[in-house]
Write a structure and sequence with these properties.
4 strands; 14 helices; binds zinc ion; 7% strand; 323 residues
Length: 323
C-alpha cells in the first residue's frame, strides 16, 4: 500500500474517533480468485476466521490448510462449497454447514488475484465497501452509524452475525438471489408460495410466520405491541423502553426467533421438512432459555418453568440478579 493510502487510513481512524463510535479496524484478505487465501485460517469473510466461527466443521475438514479456491466452486455465478469431510457432518455440525452455505452464497470469486483490504466498520463484522467509499461515508454520512447493531451479551456470536446480516439485507432469500442474477425456478416464498420472498416476508410477514410472532408476544405478555417489520424484530426496544435488562433479553429472544424461523425455512427447502409452527415455538423457547440462562448471572439462575410461564418476570428492573 502506498503512503497516501496509509495517511487516509489514519485520517479515517481519527474521523471515527471524532464521531464517537467505537470502530474496529483490521487488515483482511480481499477475495479475488482465492488461490492465496487459506479457507479456514485467514480472515476473508466476516470478522474472524472460519475455523473459529465453524469449529465443528473445521474438526471434520480433511485438509485444514486448503485454499478458498479449492473449497468454493462457482456454478452459474453462485458460490457453493466443494467439501471434503473426514466423516459426514452430523448434529450441530449440520447447523454450522447450513450457516456456512448461506454465508458463501454472498461470496464473489473472480479472476483477479487476491489482495489486501483495510476494513473499518462500525460493527466490526463484515465490510463490503471499498476503502474510499468507507472514508467518504465516515466523513459525510453520519447515517452510516444506523447500520451498526449493538452487541447483545445474551446470544452467541452466530446469532449476532445473523441479525446483523438481516438488517444489512444480506440473507439469501429468493428476492436477493434474483437481484444477483441467480436463476431460480421461482421467486415466491417457499412457505406460502404466494408472495415474493423478501427478507421481511421470510422472517416476519409471511402468513405462515405471523402466528409464531403472535404466540411469542403472548408468551412474553406483550399483547400491546406488534412485530410487523424487520426493525421491530431486530432493533426496536418497544415493550421494554427504559428497561435495559428487559430490552436485552427480549431482543435476544427475537433474534433467536428470527434465526430459528430461517433455519426451519431452509430445512423445508433443502431437507423437505414439514413446516410446524408449534415445534418452531418450542424450539425458540428452549433454545432462548439455554443461551440466555447460560449468559446470565449464576447467583440467581433463570428457572425453566418460570421462563416457559412468563419470561418477562426476568425482565423486571426491580428484580436483582440477572444482568
Ligand atoms: Zn410466505
Amino acid at each position: 500500500m502506498g503512503r497516501t493510502i496509509w495517511k487516509e487510513i489514519i485520517k479515517a481512524g481519527k474521523v471515527a474517533d471524532n464521531i464517537g463510535t467505537s470502530f474496529t479496524s483490521s487488515i483482511t484478505k480481499r477475495i479475488g480468485n482465492g488461490t492465496s487465501i487459506s479457507f479456514w485460517h485467514d480472515i476473508w469473510v466476516g470478522s474472524e476466521c472460519l475455523k473459529s466461527t465453524f469449529h465443528r466443521l473445521f474438526m471434520l475438514e480433511s485438509r485444514k490448510d486448503v485454499t478458498v479456491a479449492e473449497r468454493i466452486l462457482n456454478v452459474n455465478s453462485t458460490s457453493i462449497g466443494n467439501w471434503d469431510w473426514s466423516r459426514p457432518p452430523s448434529g450441530r455440525a449440520i447447523d454450522e454447514l447450513t450457516e456456512l452455505n448461506n454465508l458463501l452464497i454472498s461470496v464473489n470469486i473472480s479472476d483477479r488475484p487476491d489482495s489486501w483490504k483495510f476494513s473499518l466498520d462500525a460493527s466490526g463484522i463484515y465490510t463490503t465497501s471499498t476503502m474510499s467509499n468507507l472514508i467518504n461515508k465516515l466523513k459525510y454520512d453520519t447515517n452510516s452509524r444506523n447500520l451498526s447493531l449493538p452487541k447483545n451479551k445474551y446470544v452467541p456470536q452466530k446469532i449476532y452475525i445473523f441479525s446483523w446480516r438481516v438488517i444489512q439485507q444480506k440473507i439469501p432469500v429468493r428476492s436477493e438471489l434474483d437481484k444477483k442474477g441467480i436463476d431460480l425456478h421461482t421467486i415466491l416464498c417457499p412457505l406460502c408460495e404466494h408472495h415474493f420472498e423478501t427478507i421481511e416476508h421470510a422472517l416476519v410477514n409471511c402468513q405462515k410466520i405471523t402466528s409464531i410472532w403472535t404466540q411469542l408476544l403472548d408468551w412474553w405478555n406483550q399483547n400491546n405491541i406488534r412485530i410487523s417489520n424487520i426493525n421491530e424484530a431486530i432493533i426496536s426496544d418497544q415493550g421494554f423502553t427504559h428497561n435495559p435488562i428487559g430490552s436485552s433479553i427480549w431482543q435476544a429472544t427475537k433474534w433467536i426467533a428470527c434465526y430459528i424461523i430461517w433455519k426451519h425455512r431452509n430445512l423445508k427447502i433443502f431437507s423437505g421438512k414439514i413446516w410446524n409452527p408449534a415445534a418452531i415455538i418450542s424450539e425458540i423457547q428452549s433454545q432462548s432459555f439455554s443461551w440466555i440462562s447460560n449468559r446470565s448471572r449464576k447467583k440467581t439462575p433463570i428457572e425453566w418453568h418460570q421462563w416457559l410461564l412468563n419470561p418477562s418476570f426476568y425482565a423486571s428492573p426491580n428484580r436483582m440478579g440477572i444482568g
